Amino acid sequence: MMNEFRNKLVQRISNTKFLRDLREFECLIKAIGECKSKLEEDRIISRELEVLKQRLSDPKLDKSRGKEYMVRLIYCEMLGHDASFAYVKALQFASEPNLLTKKAAYLALTQFLDHNHELVLLLVNTLLSDLKSDNFINVCTALVVATKLIGPDLVHAVYPMVVDRLRHPKEHVRKKAVMVLHHFHQLDPKHQGPLSGMEIDQHFRAALCDKDPSVMNAALCALHDAIKVDPRLYKNLLPSFASILKQVSEHRLPKSFDYHRYPAPFIQIKLLKVMALLGAGDRVASENMYAVIQQVMRRTDTNHTIGNAIIYECVRTATTIYPNPPLLAAAADAVAKLLRSTSHNLRYVGIDALSGIVKINPQHAHEHQLAVVNCLEDPDDTLKLKTLELLYKMTRTNNVEVIVERMMSYLRTTIDEHIRRDISRKVSELAERYAPSPTWFMTVISEVLELGGNHLEPALAHSLMKLIAEQDEDMHRSAVDIYTRLLDAPTTKMPDLLLQVIVWVMGEYGHLAAANPGPRAMTPSQVMSKLVNLLNRQKAGDLTRALLIPALGKLCVQGSCGLPPEAEAFVSVASRSSDVELQQRAYELQALLTAPQEVQGAVLPRNQASEAYSEDELAAVEELSFLTSFVNEALQNGSAPYIPPEERTSATLGGVPEPAASSKGGLRFEAYEPAFFSAGSPATSASRIVDPFSQVPPTRSPAVRGVQTGHSRSNSGSSSTVATGEPQLRGASRGGASKWGPAHFETSGARGAGGSSAAAAGSGGGVDLLSGLVEAATASTDPQQRQRQQQ
Questions:
Q1: Is the alpha carbon torsion for 51, 56, 62, 65 positive or negative?
Q2: pTM of this prediction?
Q3: pLDDT digits (tens, 9 = 90+) for 40-62
């Protein structure tokens, strides 16, 4: 037998045609591998496609080479070139009886097409024919193609045949049939489309009890996706899942399913995920899982990575289902082995698993605090972040100082803005929740504001100010001492939130800086100078500068002193600022410093920051009762009373309607009324204007009265239609003839008894139109100006 096979092989190789074909494909692969540029590769592939196009269109095509042609086409498509000319030929090769050619054609079609392609419809008959084949390899090939190319529109065409293949004697066919049904379920998870009315779940349940583990595993994957959609429909399968997991962990499956001597570890992991979905929040269902999960954790060794994967999945399942104290304790012991590992990956997995346990019972975390803290010394940043997240969940009153210090040490070293934002937020939350003392809270929050203030909410700074205001004088001295050191900070940029806290604290309690020990003792004048220099150096925003102005006023009142030169310059610049609030505060401070000391003390009292006002007091302030006498006096002197905006009408405004834009907040689209010039008397209040460039002699109309050109006047002479005393525009006269050009202006005074208007205009020179309009307006109202014009 071997000799006969050897002879056939030698005879096949000796065939020059076979060698030539094999050499072509080998040369193609070699040429592409040696390309030095994309352009060279495209040139080779284009040449190869031209060769394949010619050969596939040849009527005398050698179908025995169909496999080779399909592989070469796949290679060209993989490199980004279009081989659509061969799609129909691939469909033809899929119908070939030769098994290798058929499989190569099916493989090419799965790479060329998707289930939305129009050519897939031509493949259905070929698939149905292969599904009915007696050769189980053809059946398996057709089932694999169905998972790739059958879409929602073609499910009904192949579904009956696929269901029939579930009873095939070969386990490979049954497994692939389950995989096809799984694909159909993914197309319609809720069974409201093409799977409507089909009992596909019953087929999954039946396949779960198949005698072959591979078929059972395929059904398990399909049921896992179905359970994600609605776990309630599969609660009755929980005993079956628990029984299968128990059998697998006891090594009852064939050894071919072992992986590194672990019994079917991937089936165990999938079963644990399914049980976690079914037992979440269900105490009755979870009680059927406790024993088998403990058995799996006890029988699994952690000497290999796959064993650690099973342990991790057991812990996740134990923390997802209804809690059981003995099971959680066993899970915590299993996690301890992962935390003591030298592998970064295993320690990360241990931290993640312990985080799930801490959510349910934080007591288990205290036993592993030291191991968790040691993970912060690891150079892996990902492990550090995961550890900090776990420490955040483990924090309580008795360990908040240690954990916050660890977080702050990492915050000082990291430069990633996202990490700084996350850690700053977590530290501030822990400090507000578990602060052991106000001094510790103030110290921590001040440092957080310094390191990550740009990532925090303003409410945190307000909480710190409120806490300081509510404490005694010793706390105030501590705050002043802390922030005094920051007044001489280097040129590094400080967050605006920290600057605002410094300004407020030093403004309220800066007078206590005189009692600071050693060189840190400062007078209020020195404090004001340092505050101004700090904000100028830090280039603070307008809001921070606005807060500094009342702080300067308080320091002046508390120290009974004036503003130092730096502060005076700051206030002077602020009074000319474009920011209205900053300008207003500067003017108020300048006015307040000129008032008597009694007034200054009443306006800026000492240690009144924590004073709270009742609603009645606030209501009394809103009434502004101290202005009552001033308002009454103004009303007696004839001033109009104030009318609220909602009560304003045309009647209350003296007959003038309020603009629509002020009431509706929109734009007005009505046309403007035409502008008129005053003519000195009500009867002649409108000026007469004519278009100087019109070629048509104007006609008299009721709409425009008293408008007349030089041409019309020259024909009519001294007409009585022109009103006396009205300014007129007319054409320039040259040699007795009217000529339209730059407009000229004349008044009735210029037309004396002995001169005509045309002659006066001709000898008077041209006047610009705009100047004429202005003079017309002034001439009609000012008699002296009119006399000068006549002269």
A1: positive
A2: 0.66
A3: 999 999 999 999 999 999 888 88
